[in-house]
Structures are given as C-alpha cells and as structure tokens.
Amino acid sequence: MLLRLAWAALTRHRARTLLAMLGVAVSAAMLLDMVMLSSGMRESFKNLLLSRGFQLRVAPKGTLPFDTDATIPGASALVARIRSDGDVTAVSPVLGGQLHVVLAARTVTAAAIGVEPAVQGDYEITHGREPAGPNEMVASADFLAASRLALGDTLSAAAGYDPQLRSLTGRRTLRIVGVAHFIYMPAGQRAVALPLATLQSMEGASAGDRVSLMMIRARSGANVDSVLARLQRALPSVSVISTASAMRQVDDRLSYFRQLALILGAVSLVVGFLLVTTLVTVSVNERLGEIVIMRAIGVARTRVVAQIVLEGVAIMLVGTVAGLGLGLITARYLNSILASFPGLPAAIDFFLFQPRDAWIALGMLAVAGVLAAVYPSWRGASLPIALTLREEAIG
Amino acid sequence: MLLPLLAAVALQQIDSSSPHRPPRTVASDERLAADAQVRIGDRIVLSSVPGGAGDTVVVSAFVKRSADPSEVARAEYRVRMHLDELQSLIGYGDRVDRFAVQSRGGAAADSAIRRVNAAAFGFQAYRSRDIAVETSRTFAVVSRFHRAIGVITIVASAVFLLCIMLLKVDERRRDVAALRLMGISAGSIVRSVMIESALVALVGSAMGVLIGWAAAAIVNWHYQALYRTPLAFAVITPAVVALAVSLSVVLGLLAGFAAAQRLVHLPALELITGRREPRAPNRSRAAETA
Amino acid sequence: MTNSDAVLVARDVTRAYHMGEEPVHAVRGVSLEITPGDYVAIVGPSGCGKSTMLNLLGGIDRPTSGALFVNGVRVDRLSDAEATRFRLHHIGFVFQRFYLMPALTAIENVELPMAEAKVARHQRLTRARELLAYVGLAARRDHRPTQLSGGEQQRVAIARALANKPSIILADEPTGELDAKTGQEMIKLLAGVNGDGTTIVVVTHDEDLARAARRVVHMRDGLVVDDRRQDAP
C-alpha cells in the first residue's frame, strides 16, 4: 500500500517528477565523475608503475624519473652495486635522449631510450623481436608512420645536433628489428629504443657512463621497504624511490584535481539534496489534507513519513541510475581533455571506472535522498490534525 | 644542455672556490629560503653534483615566484646567479641556452628576428609570445578541462533552476485557478508569473554572485598557500557575472513561462479539484453568431 | 459520577486556541456521555464548537482541560502514537469532504486502515468487498475517487470508516457536500450502520440528518444548551 501511494504521488505530476529525476541524474553524473577523478589518477599511475613488475626506481638526486634532463653518472658501478643485493632480481638502466633519423629530403626526430633489452621494462614488442646486436633498434608505430619506414629497414640516425656547425653528431646506421608499444610514452609519440651502450656511444662524451633512470625488480616475497632502505643508505648520491613514494609525489602535484573532485562532488551532492528536499516539501504541502487524514484514520506517523521518504528515495535512485550512464559518458569526454597533457603517458587515465566508485556514488545519493525527504515529511506528518483539517477546509 | 642546478643545490661543506676571492652573491627562491631556513647574508655552497666540490656564495636577495600557471605544480627550487659563475660551475664554457632581446617593438622586432635568423647560425630567434604558447600547453589543457566542467555545471544548474521554478509555479495552482475564475486573463497571469520568476532569478543570481565571489576568494587563498604561488586560480570578471546572471534570468523566465502556460491552459476547475474536466469545444465564429 | 457503560465520556472539557492575539474558547466546559449503540446528532450555529467537540471525542485534538474517555480509555492522555493506534481500532471517521486517497481505487481506500492494522491481504480484500457491497458500490470498487460522484465518494468513506469494525463512527457534516437526494441516501445508510450496533455521533447543519438521530445535543458558544432524546423517524 505504501509503495502504491508513493508511486501514485510520483506519477501525479509526471513532468515535475521527470525533471527532478533529470536534475538528480546530472548531479549523480557529476558526483560519479568526481569520485572517479579522485581515485582514478593514482590507481592508473600505480598500475602503470607496477605493470612491468619494477617496484623501485633510481633517479638523479632530488628528482622524479624523467622529470628533468639530469642524468646519473657512474651508472655501471651503481648497477653492479644494486645487482649485488640479494633481494634484487633485475635492474634495468635507461638513458633518455633524442634520435634524428636522416631521410632523403628531411629529418625525423624521435624520443630515444637506451636500454638493456634483456631486462628492459619500457616497451612491449608487438612485431619482430628485441635488439640483439649493437646496431639494432625497435620503433613505435607512430615513428614508422612518420618516417615511412618498415620493420627490417635500415636507417641512418644521429643522437645530437651541433648548432654551431649545423651538423648532426654521433651518426650510426641502425636496423629496425621490432615494432613496440612504449608504455610510458604519450599517445602519438615517435619513439625508438636501442641498446644502452649504443645510445651512450652515439651521444659521445656527454653521455659517457650515464643513465637517466634505473628500474629495480625485487624478488617475489621480498620486503620492498627494506630493499628501499638499504639502497637509500648505500646510494646517497641518487634518489631511490618506491612506487608508494612516487605516487605520493605525483599526488602532491595532482592534488589540485583531487581537491577539485572533492569540492565539485560535494556541490553535486548538495544540489541533489536540495532538489529532492524542495520537491518533497512542495509535494507534502499539496497533500496536507491526505496526510492528516491518514493520521486521522489511524495510520502511524512513521508509516506516513516512510511513504513520503520513499518518494524522495525513488527520485534519487532512478536519477542516480540514469546518472551513472551519463557520468561514464562525461568522464570519457573529460578524460580525453586531460589525456592531452603534454608528456603524459598514454596509459594514464584520470577517470578510471571502478565498480566501487559506482557504489560509493549510489550510496551517497541514497543517503542524501533519505535525509532530504525526512525533514519535510516528518514536518508534514506531525502537523496537528484538527487544525490542519480546518485550514484545509478554509483553503 | 644546461644541467638543472636545482637538482644539485645542496648545503655542502666542500668549497672549491678560491680562498682569496670574496664570495659572489646569488638570489634565492623564496621557497628555498623558507624550507631551508636561508636568510639574507647566509653563505651557501653551490655545486653541480651532490657531494661534489662547489663555490661559496652569499644570499643577497630572495626572488618571488611569478604568477605563471606552467610553474604551479613544479616543486623545484631556483637560484639566480651571475652568468659567468654558473658557466664556470657547470663547465659550460662560453655558452648560454638563450638570449632575451628587447627591441624597439612592433616592426623593429620583426626586422630583428629576420636579421638574426638569416645572419647567425646555431640558434633561432622567436617572439616571446610564441614561446609562451608552447610552454603553456599544460595550462591550456587545464583551461579546457575547467571550461568543460563549467559547461556541465551550467547544464546541471539549468535543470535545477527549471525544476525549482516549475515547482514554485505549480504550488500556486489554486491561486491561479481563483484568478481565472474571477476573470483575470491568461495573459495577465502569465505576465505576473514571469515577473515573479524573473525576480526570483535576479535575487538568486545576486546571492549566487556573492557566494561565487566568496568561494573564489577561498579557492585563491587555499591554492596560493598550497602551491606557494601568487597565481590567481579563480577570477570573477564582469563578463563572468554578466553571463551567470543573464543565463539564470533567461532560464528563470523560460521556466516561469512554461509552467504558467501549462497552468493557464488547464480548465480552472481542474486546477482546484484535481479532477480532469471535459475541455470546452472550439466554437467557430459562425456557430457563435448563429 | 459517570455511567460505566458509556462508550464516550466527556467531563468538563474545554478547548481554547489563539487566532492572532485573541484567544478563542471553542468549547467551554462540556460534559457528555454517550451509550453504546446510540445515534447522537450535535447541532448548532457555525462556530458553536460542535466540530471541535467531535475532534476532541475522536482524539484528533487535545482538550485544554477536562477529561475524555472512549471505551473506558482516557484518550486525552494518550501519546500521539497511542492515539493513532487507538483510532485505528476503535473509531471510524467520516468527513464532509470525504478525503479519500485520490491515488487509490475505492476498494484500496477501504483496505487502507486494514492494511495498517496488519490484516492479511485476502481477509482485508474480502471484507473490503463486503463493505462496498454493503454501501451499494460493489460495481464501482475499481474506480478512483475522481471517477466517483460525491455521494459515491462519501459511501466509500463510510465503508473505510467501518473497515476495522470500530465501535464508534464520528461523522463531521457527512451530507454537507451532497445534494438533497444523495443526502437522503446517506442518512439512510448511516441509520442502517447504527441499526447494526455501531455508535454514531454526527455533527450537522442538516435538519433531516438531525431528525434521523435518536438524541440531539444543541451547542452554542462552546456550551451544550440542550440535550434531548427524540423518536427516530
């Protein structure tokens, strides 16, 4: 019977009810997006960092990996020292640079990384194989498209450009043996990878025994924090960073988006709350006669309140379910905007959908719906019966 | 390539500068001063590698951050020093990364750019604003994001406003019915409702502007402290106020009009009783005069 | 001294409330006893306090002073929840404006008090059908109030009032919004209900309805000025 009465109240003014549900849907969409934004970035970044199983990273002192152009000198000794730790199963040194590919009438420039192919964690081969010799390289599909080269082609490349002489330095002939998806590169980036020693040699004296970054994989079951502490003590001239501390630093930089998410999420919740409370208040005011009659014939106040609250919750729930779909669409759109941050790895999503987020948004709105409807319905159900009947008769 | 000195600034004990040469002066970033408790007159040692040999310098000034959005999230410290000292410290030789050139402006700048690019080799001349466009791409993304959020918020506000106005007008259905039974024309009623809607929208807008102004002040206070920047994150301009107010008034009027139209076209008795009344048939003029 | 068999007892009941600055003494020291099965009409000019008296007897208003007993229970001392529960099981209301739930059909309106009293569904459906047949609306049970005439709505209201087999029916101007012919039908119906043993107290301006009662209580200015038995027509 209560359901019946609640349904009837909602369908009595269809346009009003639908508009309220639409308002709640928009609020719910915004709330879901903000919940996704607040947790999406760090989850996405964490997944990216751990995607290849490297739990620790070594960067130049005071920097984050590839945050600056700084490099780490004496890389070979450092790598050997790290590898000597019993809990370390792999160390992948990486040198960042540029490669200028000389073609007939033009030069194509690509982001280059020098790696040890056997332990590298920066790319996944999609076609072909890893470089086996010093003059072999892998390239991204975007690079091949821009340079109009293909798997198996040979090219002439240089690592540097002397502006005084307007000439390329560190030239070498390389062969493309693999096509790869570069995990940490932005979408559309022209990228190549070649053996570390080759890139160091092409960069000449400025590269020497230097790398930009080292990625460390600890053995399964090892206490990563202990490994971190040991390496930090042993290597004071560099920064050893765990995934957790890297995420904390990124969190700090992106705290603006988390706080924006919190503010906009709260505003959405408040707007949804106000909408439902206004609707229920007007609905109660219109039906005061019915409400007090129900009390007069013996329907308990709590049941009267429950029936009205049910209306508010119904609006919230229907609006929220519609809002979930709308929220996913707007999240995709907003994500496409933020994904165009210069230098952002393509794998990073700002809005990452997790079912938990939907439940959180749904839960918050359901609670808000109940709270929004409780006060006006309690007020309406608590009016003095005789006085209200008299006023209704006059009205 | 210029080594980022920031990564290597450390309060070192190793000083490789010549003992008889008085220390040169540097200007420190105010963030570094705050975090490392550096004061004017303090001596610090700058080196290009952690733990490496360096030069003793004296902090003679602090430099405030500029309101540059591209620097907001960057946490590095900055030190300004004499060019020759930095070149010597990092072994850069007689090299720089860029020159900044001030021209007489306008055509003189264009002419200077052309002559520099034609005559010299090894470097390229650009207008400052073209560089700024490139370096502010991050900010451009944030700006687009804000605009998208703004559009979504406006849509949500519009729906909310429409809903509230509809409720408010609907609540007065009995009053409207009574007026119509008295003989007040539908046009007069619609006009009256729209005036009321416009007033509600105007007063609401005024309150919204005040709330927005206060919120902007809080946002700026918070983020300027958080990122230690003078950059203004939220700015209320006359254009923004005009857009918000005009949008809400227009929406309020539309909502009031739609709701009022709905009410005046329902039979008055139906508004009072809630019972669906038979609609009066349309009578032609001929039928009326017959 | 009260009649212990009385189903309704009012002892020196007053009710005052404020209209703006001025206090209004709607009921001033009324004492009344109504026996089971009686049919009482409370009459008087507008503003004499008869509706207020009915509301007090039914527990939907509280007296400023005095005592009210219904079936031996002191109703003016019950909490709101207790009074609501009491009304559900002991008192049936019929109002001038019917006050049916517009969203429910006739049969659902009659079921409503039984649903609240946790009567099993099939039982309340059976009883609701019986009651609608009793008031002559068996064929209209699936119609909504907006599809019923005034008289039909009032019949449904009477059926609803009888749903939980109350010992008392309180009716406030039950013929007030009905035409003369329909009003007569209502009077006959109420007489029939009374004939089946239910105590009825009506407040009315309708002389025909007042004549149908066995006892007429005249009120004026919040006081009972006359109280006499009369032969039923």
A few lines on this structure:
Chain A has helices at residues 2-12, 14-50, 75-83, 141-147, 196-203, 224-234, 243-253, 255-286, 288-296, 301-338, 355-381, 385-394, and strands spanning 56-60, 88-102, 107-115, 123-128, 136-139, 154-162, 167-182, 191-195, 213-218, 238-242. With 395 residues, chain A is of the alpha+beta class.
List the helices and strands and how they pair.
The complex is a heterotrimer of chains A (395), B (290) and C (233).
Chain A: H1 2-12, H2 14-50, E1 56-60, H3 75-83, E2 88-102, E3 107-115, E4 123-128, E5 136-139, H4 141-147, E6 154-162, E7 167-182, E8 191-195, H5 196-203, E9 213-218, H6 224-234, E10 238-242, H7 243-253, H8 255-286, H9 288-296, H10 301-338, H11 355-381, H12 385-394
Parallel strand pairs in A: 3-8, 5-7
Antiparallel strand pairs in A: 1-9, 1-10, 2-3, 2-6, 2-9, 4-7, 5-8, 6-7
Helix pairs in contact in A: 1-10, 2-7, 2-8, 2-10, 2-11, 8-10, 8-11, 9-12, 10-11
Chain B: H1 5-8, E1 24-29, H2 30-35, E2 43-47, E3 54-63, E4 79-80, H3 83-89, H4 107-119, H5 128-135, H6 137-170, H7 173-182, H8 186-227, H9 238-264, H10 268-273, H11 285-289
Parallel strand pairs in B: 1-3
Antiparallel strand pairs in B: 1-4, 2-3
Chain C: E1 8-19, E2 22-34, E3 39-43, H1 50-57, E4 65-70, E5 73-74, H2 80-90, E6 91-94, H3 106-116, H4 121-134, H5 150-161, E7 168-172, H6 180-195, E8 199-203, H7 207-212, E9 215-220, E10 223-229
Parallel strand pairs in C: 3-8, 3-9, 6-7, 7-8
Antiparallel strand pairs in C: 1-2, 1-4, 4-5, 9-10
